[in-house]
Known about the structure:
This protein is α/β, with parallel strands linked by helices. The chain contains eleven helices and 15 strands.
Amino acid sequence: MPLLHKIAGVVVVCAVLLGLVLPGERRDDGGNEAEVERVGGGHPARPVDAERPAPGAGAAVPGTASATPSAAATAPIQAAAPAAAAAKANELGQVPVLMYHRILDKAEQSLDRSTKELYDELTRLAKGGYTPITATELASGRIDVPAGRHPVVLTFDDSTPGHFGLDAHGNPKPDTAVGIIQRVARENPGFRATATMYLNKDMFGLKGAEASAGLAWLLQHGYDLGNHTLSHPNLGGLSAEKVRAEIGGLEDEVVKLTGAHTGTLAYPFGVPPEKEEWAREQQGRFAFQGMFLAGWRPAPSPFSEDFDRWAVPRVRSEGKIKENDCEKYCSTAWLEYLDQHPQERYTSDGDPGTVTVPRGLQDGLAAQARSIARVY
């Protein structure tokens, strides 16, 4: 195991000994054997500098409270539609953001997942009522899934060849992550074929025209491109100039190949730079809708006052193994927990224009979500 993996693993074990609690109670003070969410703990409970609009947007999104509450923020909340109540909607529930690394025929290292493990986990999600959305949609509060279903975000870091490639007919290779997602979607109506691909410079091992064609295919078929820096450095030890060179350099490559910008950033190793604003935007070069960490808990709803789109936690995809406390805090354990505690899971009302919550939970709404909130 690489030295960095061992060091991060020791950090996680120490955190466990110092007081990790059960899922559903645990704060964001986790880590990953290869990626550490925050130095010194989790993200703040309330949005950071929430009155600022999203980069590239004209107004704040749901889940980011305004500094001055409007009349709508204190007005009575309307009753939910009968269909939303029948679906037992709870749009303040938690959203799993699953983090994958290499996808191989057979896993070789601790962060790898085999093609069978990926297929089995995605099939479990599909049969469990989950519908994939993108990281950009979560960060900006644009969640549109059928009533009664649960959003999930699939993220793939490092743009390795096992994530994506096209065959001679221009279709995704079946043994890649995208090929498996497409297969699960065909087999399970209601399971949307999408994911967020966090890119490094070596984009799936594709070069030149192949890279351009590959990224174009992903965008045309509803996949989301994210920024994961050029060379995957620890941003925590870099100057502002070097942080922007890494992030902006990758963004330049994506724009050159696609004409489009990425929507979100995932920190390499889950570590932010000394000043968050260095990574958030650079005039004329990049401007993100959200930034993603590498923690071990689902994300709060984007309509919750606890949601911070500049520090969205993710959950490592892994079985219930002893390593780094995956028995409680990796994907299999969290999905079991949410199955057993459905009241804590985000359940859609089927209407992207409203935010429906059970009566008694409305105090947890972000101020700007109250005007479209409904209760039952």
